[in-house]
Specification:
The chain has a single domain, classed as Spore Coat Polysaccharide Biosynthesis Protein SpsA, Chain A, CATH 3.90.550. Helices cover 29% and strands 22% of the residues. A hairpin with a 2-residue loop joins strand 2 and strand 3. Helix 2 crosses helix 4 and helix 4 crosses helix 5. The longest helix has 15 residues. The protein is globular, with a radius of gyration of 18 Å. The protein starts with a strand and ends with a helix.
Length: 227
C-alpha cells in the first residue's frame, strides 16, 4: 500500500510533493517503479485524496488507485486497510506500507524485508541504526546528549498482517491516532514487538527542498549506462 494523499507542506513545492518531478517523472512514479519488479507483491493499492485524478489504476502494472485518503497519513492507511478487506483481502494476508516519498527504495531492499518477515509472527520494518550523536533540545539549545545505543531510524516499507494492523489503527482512531507515527508504532501500541530489518542510507524520505536534489542525483546515477 502506498499512502499518497498528503500535501508535503515541509517540501516547499507548489503541488503535493509526491507529484513533484524528479529525474524526469513525478516522484511517486519512481516509487511505483521500485515496487513493480517485486513479484511477490500481488498488487499495489495507492491511496489518494478524494477528487485526486492524477493517477489511474493500471492492471498491467498491478496498481489500484483508491480515492479514500484521509486527513492524516494514519487515517489514509486505515482507510486503505479497510478498502483491502472490503475487496477480497483476508485478515491474515500480509501488507507492506511504503511512503510515496521514499522513491529511492530498491526491489532488493523490499525483497529483503519480505524474506525476513514471512517467517516472523509479528512482521517488521526496514530501519537503520542511528549513526549520529543525538541531542535533546530546549529553546533552541542542547538540553542533553542522548545515548544512541540500540536506537534505530525507522524506514519503510513496513510489513504486517492486514487484520492486526487494521485493528491496531482502528483502536486509536477516536483519539486522532495520537502517538502513531508509523505502522510499527501502531503494532507496538497493541503490545507486539516488530522485527528490525536493516535498510539503507539511500532509502531517504524526501521531506525538505534539498532532498529533491539528492534524490535526483541518485536516480540519474542509477539510470546512467555502465562505463
Amino acid at each position: 500500500m502506498l499512502p499518497c494523499a498528503g500535501t508535503g507542506s515541509r517540501a516547499g513545492t507548489a503541488q503535493p510533493k509526491q507529484y513533484q518531478p524528479v529525474a524526469g517523472a513525478p516522484m511517486v512514479r519512481h516509487t511505483l517503479a521500485a515496487l513493480g519488479p517485486v513479484h511477490r507483491i500481488a498488487s499495489v493499492l495507492v491511496v489518494v485524496a478524494p477528487g485526486d485524478a492524477t493517477l489511474r489504476s493500471d492492471a498491467a502494472a498491478r496498481t489500484v488507485v483508491a480515492p479514500c485518503g484521509g486527513a492524516s497519513r494514519a487515517e489514509s492507511v486505515l482507510n486503505g486497510l479497510n478498502h483491502l478487506l472490503a475487496h477480497g483481502a483476508k485478515p491474515h494476508d500480509w501488507v507492506l506500507v511504503h511512503d510515496a516519498a521514499r522513491c529511492l527504495v530498491t526491489p532488493a531492499l523490499i525483497d529483503a524485508l519480505i524474506d525476513a518477515c514471512l517467517p516472523d509472527a509479528v512482521g517488521g520494518l526496514l530501519a537503520l541504526p542511528l549513526p549520529d550523536t543525538l541531542k535533546a533540545e530546549a529553546h533552541g539549545r542542547v538540553a542533553a546528549t542522548i545515548d544512541r545505543s540500540h536506537k534505530w531510524l525507522a524506514q519503510t516499507p513496513q510489513m504486517f498482517r492486514i487484520g492486526a494492523l487494521q485493528r491496531a489503527y482502528a483502536a486509536h482512531a477516536a483519539s486522532g491516532f495520537a502517538g502513531l507515527t508509523d505502522e510499527a508504532s501502531a503494532i507496538e501500541a497493541a503490545g507486539a514487538q516488530p522485527l528490525l530489518v536493516r535498510g539503507s542510507a539511500y532509502n531517504i524520505k524526501v521531506t525538505y527542498p534539498e532532498d529533491f536534489a539528492l534524490a535526483e542525483a541518485v536516480l540519474r546515477s542509477r539510470a546512467a549506462p555502465s562505463p
